[in-house]
Specification:
Length: 154
């Protein structure tokens, strides 16, 4: 029976090798707090200036950005998620599109420039973390590969 369960669930019972993150949990919390503060400011600046439909789209996009940041800025994350990358890219583009089509006035132009800078910063932080997680993913893959070859030769 144990052979069947191992066949059906080949990784069960074996602890996956882990690679320590170069950031502590507190550093991740600080990074998240910085990004979430920027996202909340963006929402506060744009929401009053758009119609209810775009406000709802903005709310959903910001929620998706928040979920992506929460997933990637975490010590428990050891791999990238292509689907989450797509969602993040689409959501940040949606925020940018909403901002682009705000009615133009002097104060709105300042808001538009500020939001575009903040979105650019968030994208940059996300890309840096994404690249870092890819390195960790490769290290974990290498560790699993060496662990499997070592145990196969017994």
């Amino acid at each position: 029976m144990s052979n069947r369960s191992n066949h059906r669930f080949p990784g069960r019972g074996k602890k996956a090798p882990t690679v320590p993150h170069k950031f502590s949990a507190e550093e991740y919390q600080d990074a998240k707090k910085t990004v979430f503060t920027a996202i909340n400011k963006i929402n506060d600046q744009i929401s009053p200036a758009v119609n209810p439909v775009k406000r709802r789209i903005l709310k959903m996009a910001i929620q998706s950005i928040t979920e992506s940041i929460d997933l990637y800025f975490n010590q428990g994350t050891f791999r990238t998620n292509p689907r989450q990358d797509e969602i993040f890219a689409r959501s940040t583009q949606e925020v940018t599109n909403i901002v682009k089509f705000l009615p133009v006035s002097k104060e709105k132009t300042e808001i538009i420039e500020w939001v575009e800078q903040e979105i650019s910063k968030i994208r940059t932080q996300f890309k840096e973390q994404h690249a870092y997680l890819q390195i960790i993913e490769e290290e974990v893959h290498t560790l699993r590969k060496t662990t499997q070859t070592d145990s196969a030769g017994w």
